[in-house]
Amino acid sequence: MFDKMPSIQGEMNKLEAAEAEKKKKELYEKAAGKARSFIERIDPELRVRVQTVPVLPEGRYPERELLVLSFEHGKNPDLNWDMEIGESDAYIENEFEGVLKDIYEKTQSEHDLDGKIEAKARSVMQSIGPEWSVSVEIKRVPAARKNQFPHLEKVLAFDNNAKPEMSWDMAIGEDEGYIENELEEAIKRTYEARKSRFEGRAA
Fold first, then answer.
1. Is the separation of the CB atoms in 155 and 170 below 8 Å?
2. Taking CA 95 as the corner, what is the angle to CA 90 and CA 97, rounded to the nearest 5 degrees?
3. Would you place residue 65 in the very low, low, confident or very high pLDDT band (cuts 50, 70, 90)?
4. Which of 170, 41, 176, 184 has the alpha carbon at shortest distance from 109?
5. Cα distance between residue 158 and residue 124, in whole Å
6. DSSP state for residue 3 in the 8-state scheme
7. Which of 78, 116, 134, 169 gives 155 a disulfide partner, CB atoms 3.0 to 4.6 angstroms apart?
8. Per-residue model confidence as pLDDT tens digits over 77-134
């Protein structure tokens, strides 16, 4: 009799978890419906759906799936994003629209700034040589110290088609002042340091 208790408790836990997941998905579907009622006022090209996305393992957390709202732009994939939501009806009714507007405006602003950074970096590298290509990318960055975890970071990727070993990634500061006053010098300084290092190896 007593041997069956852990099994019964385990089944109850599974049922409770399944019920909680069902309620969460219903709330996300409600939020998606709410978003569809006003999203065209933000941008007519935006679409929203509920989906699960894989989350890479990080630290003590294993790989898992996460329920999110996915926003997709019909013409510009750089304006796509996924988000979790506050799990209450009050949040959906009173806060959700304002949160979405803020996220969209921030995403659009970052996209515009990324374009300026990429154009500036490309002009600098083209003056150095035609073998260079430049792009803004999101990359998984390894932990720098023991108490840190690998993480995703936006970087400028400099690729040398003739000498791949000269390629490098560089973290970027995201404001207009950085682009105008610091970016070119930072790129040239890094390039000269890498050039000197590889020329020294060759010698």
1. yes
2. 125
3. confident
4. 176
5. 11
6. G
7. 169
8. 888 999 999 878 999 999 999 999 999 999 898 888 888 999 999 999 999 989 999 9
Quote the CA–CA distance of 57 and 36 in Å, as a whole number: 32
In contact, 53 and 63? CB cutoff 8 Å: no
Question: Other C-beta atoms within 10 Å of 39: how many?
Answer: 20
Stated length of the chain = 203
Question: CA-CA distance, 33 to 26, in Å (whole number)?
Answer: 11
Q: What is the DSSP string of 139-193?
A: EEEPPSSTT---EEEEEEEEEESS-GGG-EEEE---SHHHHHHTHHHHHHHHHHH
Per the listing, tokens 């002042």 go with 177
Average pLDDT value for the chain: 85
- Residue 100: name the closest of 114, 115, 75, 79 by CA: 79
Distance, in Å, from the CA atom of 51 to the CA atom of 28, rounded to the nearest integer, reads 9
CB 183: neighbour CB atoms within 10 A? 20
- In whole angstroms, give the CA distance from residue 59 to residue 63: 10
Contact 31, 96 (CB under 8 A): yes
